[in-house]
Every structure is written in structure tokens, then in C-alpha cells.
Design brief:
By secondary structure, the protein is of the alpha/beta class. The protein contains 6 helices and 5 strands. The chain has a 5-stranded parallel sheet with strand order 2-1-3-4-5.
Length: 173
């Protein structure tokens, strides 16, 4: 439990309710990678998802949180404002989804994706970035992200379409 994790981040909240943890084994092997991720994030399969959001911008954090909660009303969201705080939380908890902002103040560039992937190889990991380029898209795929999307899309889309576009961006990279 969190009491053993030495977490000092005041933005982290401990929840007493359990979420439903899913892995790639829950999806038939004959589906494409993109279909597997979409099925893992299907509303019917996640009754109360637990999400780790690593985001330094308070505005973007509130916007992403509202999009996620609109799609999954019972979502439990742990927020980390830095890479180090996010890695600490991931070492202590299991999540159904990771939402990672690239280029955090303590970022190690695209290596951040690999660091989170190493700790949670089966957890869907989605990148939200304001510095979206074709090179970033390809690098996100190489480092193991399941999806990447520009933060500009957050203002004009629903969470399910953002996830679909994020997965398609990685698949087509």
C-alpha cells in the first residue's frame, strides 16, 4: 500500500476502492495491437479504471481529467506533476492506464517513455504533448507508447476519439 512508498507528493490521493486491472492476456491473440488497446479501454471492460496522469501543467491536468472522467465516470486518477513523482507512484501502485506528458521539467526526453514502459510493460501508455511532430510520433512508437496525440486535440475531441487517434498515430508511424 501507499504507506510503504515514501510518497511526498501532495497531489496524490489514496483510494480505498479497488479498480479492475487488465492485461494483454484478457484480449484474444488474433486481434491487431490497436484493436487490443481499444478493447482494453472499452467502457464495458473497465468498470472503475485507475489512471496515472503525469502532467506538470495544472490547466492541462484539469482538462485531461475532465475528459477521462466524462468517458469513465468512476475513474480513480493519481496525478504526478513530475517524471520522478510518476515513477515513484508507478513503483507502488498498479494502473489500468498511464497518461504521460512529454517534456516535463525533470524530463529525460523521449527516454521517459521507456522508463515508464520498463515499470509497467503491459499497461496502456498514452502520450499527450504540445510538441507533436512526425519524429516524436515515430520515437513514441519505438519506445513502446501505445498512443500519442497533440494536446491541441484535447480541446476539440472526446476521450474515446483521442484514444483512437493516439493509437492510430502510433500504429501508422
Amino acid at each position: 500500500m501507499l504507506q510503504n512508498c515514501e510518497i511526498t507528493n501532495s497531489n496524490h490521493y489514496e483510494y480505498t476502492t479497488n479498480s479492475l486491472y487488465l492485461s494483454a492476456e484478457d484480449i484474444p491473440a488474433d486481434q491487431s495491437h490497436a484493436e487490443q488497446i481499444r478493447d482494453l479501454l472499452n467502457k464495458k471492460s473497465l468498470e472503475q479504471p485507475k489512471v496515472l496522469m503525469i502532467e506538470d501543467s495544472q490547466f492541462d491536468m484539469v482538462l485531461i481529467k475532465s475528459l477521462v472522467e466524462e468517458y469513465f465516470p468512476l475513474t480513480l486518477i493519481d496525478h504526478a506533476p513530475t517524471r520522478v513523482d510518476g515513477l515513484r507512484l508507478l513503483k507502488c501502485e498498479q494502473y489500468d492506464m498511464i497518461l504521460l506528458d512529454l517534456y516535463l521539467p525533470d524530463s529525460v526526453s523521449l527516454q521517459d517513455i521507456q522508463d515508464f514502459r520498463d515499470l509497467a510493460p503491459e499497461t496502456p501508455l498514452f502520450i499527450f504533448t504540445s510538441m507533436y511532430t512526425t519524429a516524436t510520433q515515430k520515437a513514441a512508437k519505438e519506445y513502446g507508447a501505445n498512443g500519442i496525440v497533440s494536446k491541441e486535440e484535447l480541446n476539440r475531441s472526446t476521450f474515446d476519439s483521442i484514444v483512437k487517434n493516439a493509437v492510430d498515430n502510433v500504429v501508422n508511424a
